[in-house]
Design goal:
Blueprint: E1 34-37, E2 44-45, H1 47-60, H2 78-85, H3 91-107, E3 113-114, H4 118-125, E4 131-134, H5 139-149, E5 156-158, H6 171-180, E6 187-191, H7 194-203, E7 206-210, E8 224-226, E9 232-237, E10 240-245
Parallel strand pairs: 1-4, 1-6, 4-5, 6-7, 7-8
Antiparallel strand pairs: 2-3, 9-10
Length: about 250
């Protein structure tokens, strides 16, 4: 679960997302123009902080804690989570809840960890301008978590503040590719969540799923699934990026 500034429309919950039916792409055989990385659950783990903040919010706003079941909302923008969990509240209360959870999450970065292979992947691609981060959280929260993780951050970071519709809509990954000046159909999206995989595939990108959040890996039909980024090597080559198994 991540939070961001509120947008006009909410994206559907992962349970409502149909699985893509496009053909599987050969991730190990293609040369990609760039790699678009999700953040939470892909590059860093902020699970403990997220759980603490949302349980605190549930207590403050009298939300049933059971509604925050593991993985139900993983990768979904915080504004959309609030729209679902507080659907019966007035707009002012929903806005207050969103502002409060943003405040809680920015203040709580304790226990944030860099996931295996993430630092190497960014170090290999960011200097060549072949990488962007595309996250469902807002700019302030993204900055706080990336600073806590002490990662080499690529020049382009797309947050919820930069798009109208969050994942699973394709807009975030299309925006990431556009910021890099490349065709999203020639990009690889790296994700741990179904909503992100669906977003990437709907945008036309190839998708690499990670088992960093659930043992089975994300739903949504990723083209290739590995345990984490340490299981592959992302190499900047002439004309793009290649993915090699370790």
């Amino acid at each position: 679960m991540t939070t961001e500034t509120r947008a006009a429309e909410a994206s559907p919950s992962p349970s409502a997302i149909p699985s893509p039916t496009t053909a599987v792409r050969d991730v190990l055989g293609e040369t990609f123009d760039a790699v678009l990385f999700d953040m939470d659950g892909t590059l860093i783990s902020s699970t403990r902080a997220v759980e603490r903040c949302w349980l605190q919010l549930a207590e403050e706003f009298a939300m049933p804690a059971g509604d925050l079941a593991p993985f139900r909302f993983h990768g979904v923008p915080g504004r959309d989570i609030i729209e679902v969990l507080l659907a019966d509240r007035d707009p002012a209360e929903r806005a207050a809840a969103l502002a409060r959870v943003v405040e809680l999450e920015i203040a709580d970065t304790d226990g944030i960890e860099v996931l295996p292979g993430a630092a190497d992947a960014l170090a290999a691609l960011a200097p060549a301008g072949r990488a962007a981060i595309v996250t469902s959280c807002g700019a302030d929260l993204a900055a706080a978590r990336l600073a806590a993780a002490d990662l080499a951050v690529p020049a382009q970071v797309v947050t919820a503040d930069d798009v109208t519709r969050g994942k699973p809509d394709p807009e975030p990954y299309r925006t990431g590719a556009a910021r890099l000046g490349v065709d999203v159909r020639r990009c690889l999206v790296v994700e741990d969540a179904e909503s992100g995989v669906v977003s990437g595939r709907a945008a036309g990108a190839a998708t690499l799923g990670l088992r960093t959040t659930s043992p089975e890996g994300p739903g949504g039909g990723p083209d290739l699934v590995v345990a984490d980024l340490s299981r592959v090597e992302l190499v900047a080559v002439e004309g793009g990026v290649r993915v090699r198994p370790r």
